Amino acid sequence: MSDAAALGAFDPNEHRMVPARTFEELKVGEVFRAPSRTVTDAHGSAFQAISADNHPVHYDVEWARAHGHSAPVVHGLQVLAFTAPGATLFPHVIGDVFVRFDSLACRFLGEVHAGDTLYSQLQITELVTQGTEGRVKTAVSVRNQRGELVLDGEHIYVLKRQSA
Prior knowledge:
The structure is a single chain. By secondary structure, this protein is α+β, with helices and mostly antiparallel strands. The protein contains five helices and six strands, in the order αββααααββββ. Strands 1, 2, 3, 4, 5 and 6 form a six-stranded antiparallel sheet that branches. This is MaoC family dehydratase.
């Protein structure tokens, strides 16, 4: 008997990182953390290339210092990208009920520089049913290695409801 036959038929839909849950199984207060990441100059260069943001505050050490910064500042949108739900297990948890990423808002609260390690998370703050869909509001935050909150905000996702 072959190894494949001994293991049974493979179903890619059953190859999940975590068990998928429905909108109704989510709970206010649940937290989804991303792995910590240390931002490097290479990250900044890659983001500058993709965003086309050529402001010298992001890459010119002398310009940044002359304007009151200790070093070039990591682009705020790059820090916001650290709150991407896909950086956490959240999209795996919601599995096939995901409809769309509805909206986001954020505040930039502190500078981030190459060498900083960032810790981001999403926390469910509200679950609202709307017909056949459910809206999941999450508080998002990013802290640095010193525990300083450098970004906060919210994301809203729309999911299919099972009991609509």
